[in-house]
Amino acid sequence: MKKTLGIILSLTLLITGTIGCAAAKESSNVESTSTAASINAVSVNYDSDDYYFDWRNGSYKTIGLNGSSASVKGDGLAVQDSVVTISASGVYEIIGTLTDGSIIVDVNKDTDNGTVFLVLNGATIESQTSAPINIKGAKKSVILLENGTKNSVADGSDYIVNADGEPSAAIFSKADLTITGGGTLAVTADYNDGITSKDDLKITDGTLIVNAKADGMVGKDSLNVKNGNIAITAGKDGMRSTNETDEGKGNVVVQNGQFTITAANDAIQASKLVQIDDGNFNLNSGGGYPGKSISSGNNDFGGRPDQNATSTTESTDEEESKKGLKAGQGILINGGNINVSSYEDSIHSNNDVAIKGGILTLQSGDDGLHADNNIFIDNGEITIKNSYESLEGTNITVNGGKISASSTDDGINVNNNQGVLNITGGEVTLNANGDGLDSNGSINMTGGTVYVDGPASNNNASLDYDGSFSISGGTLAASGSSGMAQAPSTNTQPSILMYYSSAQAAGSTIALKDQDGTSIVTYTPSKQYNSVAISSPKLSVGSTYTLYSGNTKLVNVTLSESLTYLSESGVTTKPQNAGPGGGGGKGPGGNRPQ
Questions:
Q1: What is the per-residue pLDDT for 339?
Q2: Which DSSP string do the residues of 517-572 spell out, in sequence order?
Q3: Under DSSP, is residue 396 helix (H, G, I), strand (E, B) or coil?
Q4: Bridge partners, residue 115, by sequence
Q5: What is the pLDDT of residues 384-413, one digit of tens each?
Q6: pTM listed for this prediction
Q7: N or C of the chain: less Cβ packing under 10 Å?
Q8: Is the predicted pLDDT of residue 584 greater than 90, yes or no?
Q9: Mind listing the UniProt keywords for this protein, alphabetically (predicted)?
Q10: Which residues is 352 bridged to in the sheet?
Q11: Residue 431 in contact with residue 407, Cβ under 8 Å?
């Protein structure tokens, strides 16, 4: 469906109004309608001490946990009751069980800039009133999970905290924190977060199992994962980076690993950038795909919860965001196998989204892939099994890759009247109950292949644009209703727009062949249809072609111009009151060609 028609409010802010085939959800305000360059990748530096090493070959100290007490020996260590305090950098082996106590790291980083290594070697640490591991101060701390060991930390539901509300996690760090090693760490956080660093949080190896009342993992300045096996169950966000103000901070960058995240809110969220280079992800947010669209007013799906079908493309402070991947500035996917089941958008950016690789399988109660600004798809495989709108943005560019998407409303929607849907390559297959390709601005196609299994209802169309649809390359086959049917309006390669006298049954193959019987386009819609728009670089003006329905010959046509209107009786004229490139303009039913 058509979303909005932007009008100028100021030099940088647009406010939207409604336009289109039928009333639909409103678009969010946008700051820019120009297509910017794709997102630049972030490089994360890992130090040598971010990885496992043979700590036994050097000097180390041992902390023995003995139920309600602990024993230590050596400089930089102190014990009071069941609290062990480390005050100097070095390597500390931790073994045994502590039933109600803490390991506190409190190193003056102005006089000691070394790294504190906490080697968990079969350690169980529990605390009822504070963080079991509390890193109050250090230049850097590393939790090393000894290979083959099982370790755990758990806290109670009622903390004693300072004026800043700290500590706020079962593993809490005021310093840069790295977790590595070939062991297992189970974190149970009944008070708040599972693992939190107020600086950088890095994970380079290990098996982490986090069950948290609030967020699973938080790295304020950054959350970076190079490898590991991570399972998170979170009462709020799964993985998160929160720094909104400092340049270059607030990112979540994943290079590899195995991730299973079930989060009541967002599965992975960053104030700035979410970047995924590789890895395997199974993400469930907000209870997962609810089995129907939460946005659509059609198909008996009702409106958004408590909002009567108004837009929630941007969550307010009062609303709980329930998205798969979410970022304030950008989402960049370079690779990986990403499966998302989300109550709201599966992938959502308040600015840009760039897909440069990977295999994405998405199920969403709202949009499959949403950007408040630009979407770039250069490569990868994107399957959107369920969505309200499959792709939505101010500008959308498809340069490559493979997209297969189903939606209760629009398949691809450019929601600004200055926006452009630009298709230069790739393969796009859409099954849309609303408009298939929908642009409040224009469409430009220079390559690629697009198949649209469009709407059966006449208040929508397989192609819907307000500006122009320029086509100079690529293959297009778009079937759907006839009431508002459109075809490319500016053609340097020929197109046809066929109107059928009666609805064609679902599964009826559309075939266009040349005089030699060579197939130009073959497509089989899964829904009934009354029209089809076809364009191909194999078509040429002056040549004759035959359109078939299955094996039944319908009509011969000799192309005499760049856009030819066709019925079962032969070449016809453009419908009265038609918009650019086709029918429409008079509501459901439109005006059929005579």
A1: 98
A2: --EEEEE--SS-EEEEEEE-TT--TT-EEEEEETTEEEEEEE--SSEEEEETTEEE
A3: strand
A4: 140
A5: 999 999 999 999 999 999 999 999 999 999
A6: 0.89
A7: C
A8: no
A9: Signal
A10: 330
A11: yes
